[in-house]
Amino acid sequence: MFDLIIVGGSAAGASAAVYAARALMNFKVVATDLGGEVALSGEIGNYPGFNETNGIELSQKFADQMKFNKVDIDEGVTVYAITREGNAFRIVGKDYSENEKVYQAKAVLLTTGVHPRHLKVPGEKELYQKGVSYCTTCDGPLFRGRVVATIGGGNSALESILMMSNLAKKVYAINIDAEFHGERVYIEKLKTLKNVEVISSAETTRILGEGKVTGVEYKEKGSGEKKKIETDGVFVHIGMIPNSTIVKDLGICDELGFVEVDKLMQTKIPGLFAAGDVANIPYQQISIAAGQGVTAFLTAQNYLNQRQ
Ligand SMILES: Cc1cc2nc3c(=O)[nH]c(=O)nc-3n(C[C@H](O)[C@H](O)[C@H](O)COP(=O)(O)OP(=O)(O)OC[C@H]3O[C@@H](n4cnc5c(N)ncnc54)[C@H](O)[C@@H]3O)c2cc1C
User: What is the C-alpha separation between 183 and 54, in angstroms, rounded?
Assistant: First the structure.
């Protein structure tokens, strides 16, 4: 029986883990990997203490700091269920070899982040990693000098378009809405880019290609007319879905699946906490996730002290 299991080992999980280790708590981190979305964040210039870094480097620093503090980590274990067992929790996962791993803990901190939303159109699944990508930071360089389409209208899509405008010959920016919804500075920059063609009010209906992407079909919202463009790659950035299915039966998520927490990162179930992007708090940023991880740990520590 652990005092605390931290599920997830990235910004929120790692910051909580460092505090827990320094408090000599009986705890463990269980995580699919130690990178999460931080590792996919590309260039990072807004994390305190670093003028310039990138997602891979920063997530490695988080992992190094956990190792320096001798945090007990089960890396490579994906949790698929968290249930209540008396006044404790049962956490069940599988490792890379599909071996079941079962843990018991008096308290659980969920820091599982989010994953990209899919378009759910024909061709998307079939052509995934054959031209379809959800991570421009990771796969953008594969399309140097080629033609790509970015689908989406928020900050992630704008970041994707700006990055690809430097790498690709041409970028189609397909947005289902009439306007982009993102940081003003990105939207203004977009207007200056000569190799970007914005296709707005356009609903993507199909990814075209056999064995590899050759184009995108979309429907003009006003006329209903279907049109096709030729592309080598498609970057899908249409929002994020919280990794919260493991607690869906506990009734702690909002209608979008984010875990509902109060300002101390407590869910409505005593002993169950959430922090970072998976929590229903606005502004998904690394420094925010790290801060929430610390708050959640300190609240969990109080909870454990009071129940012993
Ligand atoms: C393209 C992009 C660019 C970004 N750029 C920036 C930026 O410049 N600056 C900034 O501050 N933020 C940026 N962000 C946001 C930032 O990445 C997130 O806010 C941050 O990663 C949230 O940290 P987290 O710890 O909540 O989740 P994550 O970093 O996603 O970590 C989730 C952790 O949970 C684990 N996990 C998930 N499910 C399970 C499971 N079932 N079982 C076990 N473990 C599990 C993962 O392996 C991982 O360890 C960017 C995001 C994206 C997508």
Answer: 20
CATH class for the region spanning 2-115+240-307: alpha beta
Task: Name residue 131's amino acid.
Answer: G
Q: pTM surpassing 0.90?
A: no
Residues 6+ apart with CB under 8 A from 35: 10, 55, 56, 59
Cα–Cα dist 279/242, whole Å: 8
Q: Is the CB of 42 under 6 A from ligand 1?
A: yes
Q: Which atom of ligand 1 has the smallest separation from the CA of 43? A: 8
Q: Is 44 in the pocket of ligand 1 (CB under 6 A)?
A: yes
Say yes or no to pLDDT of 42 above 90.
no
The helix (run of H) or strand (run of E) holding residue 217 is strand 215-220
Distance CA 114, CA 284 (A): 10
Domain chopping of the chain, boundaries: 2-115+240-307, 118-236
Q: How far is the CA of 187 from the centre of ligand 1 (A)?
A: 24
pLDDT value for 308: 62
Using the mean position of ligand 1's atoms as its centre, give its distance from the Cα of residue 37 in Å. 3
Within the chain, where are the H helices? 11-22, 55-68, 136-139, 155-167, 184-191, 286-307
Q: What angle do CA 89, 92, 95 make, to 5 degrees?
A: 145
The separation between CA 194 and the C-alpha centre of its own chain, rounded to angstroms, equals: 31
Average pLDDT on 137-155 reads 93
Q: How far is the CA of 307 from the centre of ligand 1 (A)?
A: 31
Q: Is 74 helix (H, G, I), strand (E, B) or coil?
A: strand
Instruction: Say if ligand 1 is within 6 A of residue 289 CB.
Output: yes
Residues 199 and 218: beta-carbon distance below 8 Å: yes
Q: Does domain 118-236 have CATH number 3.50.50.60?
A: yes
Taking all residues of the chain, what is their mean pLDDT, rounded to a whole number? 95
